[in-house]
Every structure is written in structure tokens, then in C-alpha cells.
């Protein structure tokens, strides 16, 4: 089974206390967590070790590998802390300068390719995910990846003097909520959702 070690860790935790830390809901009979990842509601069932997304039409969609990783790691690690209110790049997170390299680099190129010629499209698409507009770059949004893990995505338009650029910024408290591998998984899911929506609209 995928993520068996994470399920075992979750089994050892108190459900109500875990939900309080993670700012989500815990229900009994059967015991389960209900929490939101990228504006989609998921149900995490420790008893039979499955996770599914609750569809708008009441159909249940099994969570994929990365979604499971994000949700389980978050439930295990989340802390009841306020946001620091300070944005930092990935290298400023503890261990980030060593982790976010090579194949573990942030997917900023995909954002550049999708939005550099029309940054406004980022703002238009982000509304589908409950994101809020920010005032950085040519377009920027704050997207709640998980209840205590916001992402700030910034895009600069391509012009004669400068190449297109994109940045993904984190609240300084993010490392308190998620290990870096789960954070990267969540970022990849977020960028895939945003850029995939561009493809659908084009």
C-alpha cells in the first residue's frame, strides 16, 4: 500500500487533537478527517486507509499518490500556529537550499510558459480555486494549498528587456506544517491545476 508508514503514524494520533492542529474536521463512526486541498474537499479514512475527493455531483474520486502524500503528511505534521506574515522563497525554508534542486526544483517554468504572455489569465483562473489577488509582479495570487499552508504565486510578463519570470513564495511558517517532500508535491499539484486550466481554456 502507498504511504503505509504515514498511515501508521496517523493511526497513532488522537483524531480530535489532530483535526484541531490541522484546522480541519474530524468525524466519528467511522473515524475520518474532512479537509480541503486546493479548494477540493477530501475525506481521509484511517480505518480502511483510503482517501477520496468529494465531487460536486456526490461522486467520490480516489486521491492520487501526490494528493495522498500531501494530506497524510499535513495531518501528521500540522501545528496550531498563526501565519508568520512574512513571505520567503524556497531556499529560506529550513533545508530548502539543499532540497529544492534538480528534479526537486519548483515548477516555475510551467507558470512562465502558461502566463508570461498574459498574466491576467492567472487572476482569472485563480478564482476557480478561491485564490485572492495580490500586488506583486504583473500578476500574483495567494492560494490556500491546505488550511495552514498558503502559496503566493507571482508572474512577470515577458518584454523586450526581460525574460518572463515566475516565483512561488511561502509563509515563513510553512516548514512547521509540512515536510519539504510533501510541500513540493502540493506545489506541483497547484501548478498543474492552474496551468491545466489554461490548457482547457485555450
Structure overview:
The chain has 202 residues and is α+β, with helices and mostly antiparallel strands. The chain folds into two domains: 74 residues, no CATH class; 115 residues. Helices cover 37% and strands 25% of the residues. It has eight helices and ten strands. Strands 1-2-3-4-5 form a five-stranded antiparallel β-sheet, with helices on one face. The protein has a five-stranded antiparallel β-sheet with strand order 6-10-9-8-7. β1 and β2 form a beta hairpin. α1 packs parallel to α3 and α2 crosses α3. The longest helix is centred in the C-terminal third of the chain and has 22 residues. The radius of gyration is 17 Å and the shape is globular. 32% of the residues are buried. The model has no long low-confidence stretch (mean pLDDT 92).
Mean pLDDT: 92
Order of helices and strands: HHEEEEEHEHHHEEEEHH
Which radius of gyration do the C-alpha atoms yield?
17 Å
Distance between the termini: 38 Å
Strand content: 15-25%
Strand order of the largest sheet: 1-2-3-4-5
| Unreliably modeled segments | none
Count every beta strand, where a strand is a DSSP E run of 2 or more residues: 10
Our count of helices gives: 8
Q: Main β-sheet: number of strands, strand sense, barrel status?
A: 5 strands, antiparallel
Shape: globular
**Multimeric state of these chains?**
single chain
Q: Provide the domain count.
A: 2
Amino acid at each position: 500500500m502507498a504511504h503505509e508508514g504515514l498511515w501508521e503514524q496517523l493511526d497513532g494520533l488522537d483524531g480530535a487533537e489532530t483535526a484541531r492542529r490541522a484546522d480541519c474536521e474530524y468525524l466519528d463512526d467511522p473515524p475520518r478527517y474532512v479537509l480541503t486541498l486546493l479548494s477540493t474537499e477530501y475525506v481521509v479514512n484511517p480505518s480502511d486507509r483510503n482517501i477520496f475527493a468529494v465531487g460536486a455531483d456526490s461522486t467520490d474520486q480516489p486521491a492520487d499518490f501526490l494528493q495522498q502524500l500531501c494530506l497524510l503528511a499535513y495531518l501528521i505534521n500540522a501545528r496550531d500556529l498563526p501565519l508568520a506574515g512574512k513571505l520567503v522563497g524556497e531556499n529560506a525554508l529550513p533545508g530548502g537550499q539543499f532540497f529544492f534542486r534538480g528534479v526537486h526544483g519548483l515548477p516555475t517554468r510551467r507558470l512562465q510558459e502558461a502566463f508570461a504572455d498574459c498574466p491576467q489569465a492567472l487572476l482569472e483562473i485563480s478564482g476557480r480555486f478561491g485564490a485572492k489577488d495580490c500586488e506583486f509582479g504583473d500578476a500574483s495570487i495567494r492560494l490556500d494549498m491546505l488550511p495552514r499552508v498558503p502559496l503566493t504565486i507571482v508572474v512577470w510578463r515577458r518584454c523586450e528587456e526581460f525574460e518572463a519570470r515566475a516565483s512561488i513564495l511561502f509563509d515563513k511558517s510553512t516548514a512547521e506544517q509540512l515536510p519539504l517532500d510533501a510541500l513540493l508535491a502540493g506545489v506541483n499539484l497547484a501548478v498543474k491545476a492552474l496551468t491545466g486550466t489554461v490548457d482547457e481554456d485555450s
